[in-house]
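Narrative of activities, Objective 1.

The group set out to show that a structural description can be obtained from nothing but a protein's sequence at a throughput compatible with the screening campaign. Below is one input-output pair from the validation batch, recorded exactly as produced.
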Amino acid sequence: MNKPTDSVRIVIFDVSDPAQFLVLAEADDPTNWKLPGGKFDSVDETPVAAATRELREELGLEATAVQLRQVGELKNDDGVSARYIFAATADKAAPNPSAEIEAVQWVTPETIPDSPNKAHIESAVSHARNANPAV
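Output recorded for this entry:
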């Protein structure tokens, strides 16, 4: 059972250049860059189900096509809520952002846009790389 403040975040690495990964900005918050993902729909939704749903809703991607895998869990600054971290690989042309997404950008750790979520992006990417050094 998850808490209402828990979320899933997905680090999508470029299949041809794993140094790059995808960040996005939502239409209702266009200057706040973040990793794909979001909140759970219910306290009974599993992290895998939430990540699968968010991939489909935000980017039109299927979990099996991008080899979605859970790589860990990070506590947020509040010490209570969690971010379930997933990793995936995709071709740069694969994402088909929905209307809720303002923009997507492929970045490296050095080129993450400044935004309130920059530290969360950095920690999730680091965690995903440590869990799977091949990316």
